[in-house]
Amino acid sequence: MSGMTIDSGRHSIYSHLASGKRINTAADDASGLAIAQKLKREETGLNVGAENAQAGVGVLNVADGALGGVMDYLQRIRELALRSMNGLTTGSDKQIYQNEINQLKEGIQSLAKDTSLNEQKLLDGSMADMDLATNPNGGGMSIKMANSTLAALGIEDFDVTGDFDLEAIDNAMNIVSSQRSYLGASTNRLEHTYNYNTNASLQQMRSRSSLEDLDIGKAVSEKQKQDLLSRYRIMAQKKKQEQEGFVTRLFR
Fold it and tell me: What confidence score (pLDDT) does residue 135 get?
């Protein structure tokens, strides 16, 4: 029985040294294993949340870049509208301006309809909210996405060849500016979440490692102790056999 205990102890030490872990099975430390698994779950959740936050930043960067293009179009439309308001501008001049404005409006609509990521439209109003699971429990942030279609901006029928209100373009520019400001703030928030999750995950990993990881120096010392006991046991058995053989020879 003693030999089995020593052999079992040696096998356990070898398995721990091979894995580098203090806890390989529930038998090693049932409560410690349960805590380690809980820490691992939190660590994994934080890592996935960080990845989701990073993906969200990518989406918002794409959307903001497209909105920057929309703003450039609006700036040009406003410039042409101001030129058409000049008293020296003829009707044919206004039509020329309007032809370019129509092209610019098509550019705005194209950006609104075609800007997408992972086959999801970002600026046509179809994605009202982008929900991101940035927390280990699946919760997170809900970001209201922009709608930069001509209808949403209120300039679908803007035409400088007839009566028009320059304020319509100003309002559209204010809408886009507000959308970009909101997306920028959301990006900053996601970046903060990413940094927090990454740091928290690292702390969870350290806590788990301190619980699970093997004290190599102590384990090696225990292995040497077990090896010494094993050699002693073998020597004792050999000596006992020699003594028994000597006694047997005496009574022959």
Answer: 92
